[in-house]
Amino acid sequence: MKIKDHYILIGYGDVGRAAVEALHGEIDLVIVDVDEERVKKSKIPYIIGDSTEEETLELAGIRDARMVMILLNNDMNVVFTTLLARNMNPHAVIFSRANTVEAIEQIYRAGADFVAALPIMAGQLLARLVTGEGELKDVVKLCEGIEILKQEIKDGSMLAGRTLADLDIRLKTGCTVIGIKRGDDVIAEIDASTKIEAGDVIAVIGHEQQVERFKELFGERSS
């Protein structure tokens, strides 16, 4: 599959369908699932196969993906898929579902950037965040210490007019920019060359301490 900077959504169950419903039409998205009858109704590009096998992820374009959402309902498969996805694409943002609290640490060790132990809430919030749909508070707490921060970029902001490569937000804070709302448009295809402009509303995701670090370094200050 020839596609780049796309999202891969693995697991088209209830959580996956909730995320796809909001994401569809906003970003390039590929679904991976084992059930073709279930997936083909989505009318979205898909790969049928076992996500714990390298060939399946290759077909989905894993090496060029920007984000991988692993929403399987079996924790062992989540661990194996996360491990494989991380090995095949060290730079992708990996957001994995944990079906039990006990699996959270294993999934992090496998290479996930973020683990959601409350998958339905996390899937819906992440999807709305990326598409800009719905009203979210400035800081949304997902679960297990994960937060999404929305910040409006004002005139004179240290972020305005600079690319993500210039700012190096992920290295300095651990947070990842996952969406930019610019006027009526939502920018979800984000890379190092993406420039932030005054008037944008950016969305970053990170753990509580990482979000606090972001606020310290890049938060808007009152004049």
In the predicted model, the low-confidence regions spanning at least 5 consecutive residues are none
The portion of residues assigned to helices is: 25-40%
CATH class assignment of the largest domain = Alpha Beta
Please provide the ordered H/E string of secondary-structure elements: EHEHEHEHEHEHEEEHHEEEEH
Strand order of the largest sheet: 3-2-1-4-5-6
Q: Per DSSP, what share of the residues sits in E-state strands of 2 or more residues?
A: 15-25%
End-to-end C-alpha gap: 50 Å
Mind telling me which CATH architecture of the largest domain this is? 3-Layer(aba) Sandwich
Structural description of this entry:
The protein has 223 residues and is an alpha/beta fold. It has 2 domains: 7-124, 3-Layer(aba) Sandwich (Rossmann fold); 135-218, Alpha-Beta Plaits. It is 33% helix and 25% strand. It contains 9 helices and 13 strands. The protein has a 6-stranded parallel β-sheet, sandwiched between helices. Helix 4 (75-88) links the parallel strand 4 (67-70) and strand 5. The termini are far apart.
